[in-house]
Specification:
Elements lengths: L1 H17 L3 H31 L5 H50 L2 H4 L2 H12 L5 H25 L1 H5 L7 H7 L2 H34 L1 H16 L4 H6 L3 H53 L5 H42 L14 H5 L2 E9 L9 E9 L3 E6 L5 H8 L7 E6 L2 E2 L5 H5 L2 E4 L10 H6 L6 H10 L3 H6 L21 H15 L3 E5 L7 H14 L4 E5 L11 E6 L2 E6 L1 H7 L2 H26 L1
Helix pairs in contact: 1-13, 2-3, 2-6, 2-13, 5-10, 5-13, 6-13, 9-12, 9-13, 10-12, 12-13, 18-20, 22-23
Length: 623
């Protein structure tokens, strides 16, 4: 409870700072919405009183009618204007909230982004974004203020209902004037209101529990829908392998879990809501009976009957709305707490104060010293006791079987993760001592799971909107993308993919990889890291890229991960990984002479190249 109210107060302060106009407009809108029905109640009562009066004044009657129409029109315009203005402000708050979630994700450690709990938090915030949290809080605050204003007006204007006494000394008049008559009415009113409050609270708690039960399947269903429908690139696999049935089955299972949760809640709510509705109708009859008897025995006029029945109904509705809204706020506090828990998530990677001095870029040495690393939740380490050194100007090849730890080695070097044991040193200083953002600028990287965004070609290369077009074009040329660039309709301004634009250009796998390499070249960092940079390229294109990359990294450091061992020829040293350990290190010739793991991998690939060349020679002799 304390956590929910704390989150609620934080949310109020957040909205006040983010969009100061929200709360004043909310107060004004709520007050106008609450007061608006009373225009009709009060003026209609006055009109009815005038109509039933024995001394009817037509001028006053016409004036009241004109006043009613005018006030209704002006009141409706004011309410609509304020309501629309508040909606616009809510959308502004929503946009800023969405932005804050994205910015928080950008600033999070890579380790945290890979955490399933963080992923679940992001999905939950995204799913309930439009119905719960801060946007819902503004609506709830509006309803609460409206309920309080409505209660206040009703109380002020219904005092006469209980104070007025029936005229005469008849049995009916004595009954109406006796204290038990209003006491019984108030008792029934209290019991009816209490039940409505209890049933509303029970409904809110049940709804919240239902939402919690369906949270996981709902998030999974949304992810599945996004993967199958929104990401059109996956459509090829779905169609070729006829995966529609499997995907539909998975989706139906999730939908059944959601529907099951809602059916369970529906059975629980049905009786409560029926009885609540029945009591509301009985209470309405009781209000007309109470006020009608007072009118019949002369306590007040016929017009007041209309006024007081409306007032009492508004009062009852206001009490129920107030209590239910407070209960909704408490339930909504859980969603606010989810948002602030996400925002308050602390980065695991500590940011130090030591700058990466300019002279380090001119002469540097990396050292892995007895490094061991285990992924969160993994059964065993992915890297064990890794020790090695490499300097500026060295071109290092990292090879090994799938799952041997090559990419993990790169992620640790780029400090996407920190090792649990050992140290990674830059010029003898633990890399955790350097400023994190400055250290990241030290690397230009192409990962094997690189991503090309649905932006313009130039923005993809530069990773920013304001960029040097000359540098971007040169980077694409050096990455072997030049011929394709010259065929693009708008050059660097060509929109990639069709996510946002119908005329977006689709890239092949090899073209996308060249753009990723161009991004690496554009950054022009001191150290280049390329994880399977040519996996989607043919042998000729691969040889061309490596030749270009060699020219680019002259005088710099570079690390290449590749399953094609032919790329190891131009590297000054080779690191061979096996089952998370550094099995061998040396030059190409040294490792072949050692006849170890590298020798086996090399001969396994050479065998296929030799067989292919032999088959081609045989074909030429035949023809």
């Amino acid at each position: 409870m304390k956590k929910k109210w704390k989150a609620f107060i934080r949310a109020i302060v957040f909205v006040a700072k983010d969009c100061p106009a929200v709360w004043p407009v909310t107060l004004l809108t709520a007050a106008l919405e609450a007061a608006y029905p009373y225009i009709n109640i009060i003026l209609s009562a006055e009109i009815l009183t005038e109509i039933t009066s024995s001394t009817r004044d037509m001028e006053r009657l016409l004036f009241l009618a004109a006043l009613l129409v005018t006030m209704e029109f002006l009141g409706s315009c004011c309410v609509q204007f304020c309501s629309q203005l508040l909606n616009c402000l809510q959308y502004m708050v929503m946009a800023h909230l969405d932005e804050s979630v994205v910015i928080k994700g950008w600033g999070m450690d890579y380790t945290l982004l890979c955490d399933p709990k963080i992923h679940e938090q992001q999905n939950t915030i995204s799913h309930w974004f439009f119905w719960k949290g801060m946007v819902a809080m503004i609506t709830q605050f509006r309803r609460l203020i409206g309920a309080l204003v409505s209660i206040g007006i009703s109380v002020a204007l219904t005092v006469e209902l209980f104070a007025a006494r029936a005229a005469g000394d008849s049995m009916g008049a004595r009954l109406v004037n006796h204290w038990t008559f209003p006491a019984l009415f108030l008792l029934f009113f209290g019991l009816s209101t209490a039940y409505n409050i209890w049933s509303g609270s029970r409904f809110q708690k049940g709804t919240y529990q239902m939402e919690q039960d369906e949270k996981a399947p709902m998030n999974q269903a949304e992810e599945l829908m996004k993967a199958c429908c929104a990401e059109y690139q996956r459509g090829k696999d779905v169609r070729i392998f006829h995966a529609q049935g499997m995907l539909l089955g998975k989706f139906q299972e999730l939908c059944e879990a959601i529907v099951g949760s809602r059916k369970k809640a529906k059975v629980s709510f049905r009786r409560t809501l029926v009885l609540s509705e029945l009591l509301s109708r009985i209470f309405g009859i009781a209000v007309y009976l109470f006020a009608g008897l007072k009118t019949l025995y002369g306590a007040f006029g016929v017009g007041s009957l209309l006024k007081y029945t409306g007032m009492v109904t508004q009062f009852g509705d206001g009490i129920v709305a107030m209590v239910q809204t407070i209960d909704e706020m408490l339930q909504n506090g859980s969603y606010l707490a989810d948002y602030f828990d996400y925002q308050d998530t602390k980065n695991i990677t500590a940011d130090a104060a030591l700058p990466v001095a300019p002279e380090i870029r001119e002469d540097y040495e990396f050292e892995f010293r007895h490094v061991t690393f285990t992924y969160p939740g993994a059964a065993g380490p992915s890297l064990r006791d890794i020790s090695c050194k490499f300097r500026k100007g060295e071109k290092i090849a990292v090879v090994g079987r799938n799952g041997s730890g090559k990419t993990t080695f790169i992620k640790l070097l780029c400090r996407l993760y920190d090792p649990q044991e050992g140290q990674i040193l830059l010029n003898g200083v633990d890399i955790r001592e350097y400023r994190y953002e400055e250290y990241l600028r030290f690397f230009s990287t192409v990962f094997q799971d690189y991503h090309i965004f649905a932006f313009t070609l130039g923005e993809n290369v530069a990773a920013e909107s304001d960029y040097s077009r000359k540098r971007a074009a040169r980077a694409l040329e050096n990455a072997g993308f030049g011929p394709r660039l010259r065929t693009m309709p708008q050059g660097l301004d060509t929109q990639l993919f069709k996510n946002f634009y119908e005329d977006g250009v689709e890239l092949s796998g090899g073209e996308g990889q060249k753009v990723a390499i161009a991004r690496c070249l554009y950054k022009d960092a001191p150290h280049a890291v390329l994880d399977e940079p040519t996996a989607a390229l043919d042998a000729v294109a691969e040889a061309d890229i490596y030749q270009r990359m060699n020219q680019f990294v002259q005088g710099k450091g570079a690390i290449y991960i590749s399953h094609r061992l032919s790329s190891c020829h131009f590297c000054s040293r080779i690191l061979v990984f096996d089952n998370g350990t550094l099995a061998e290190t040396g030059t190409h010739e040294e490792l072949l002479r050692a006849e170890g793991l590298y020798w086996k991998l090399w001969n396994a690939q050479a065998k296929y190249y030799q067989e292919e060349r032999s088959e081609k020679s045989h074909r030429r002799r035949r023809f």
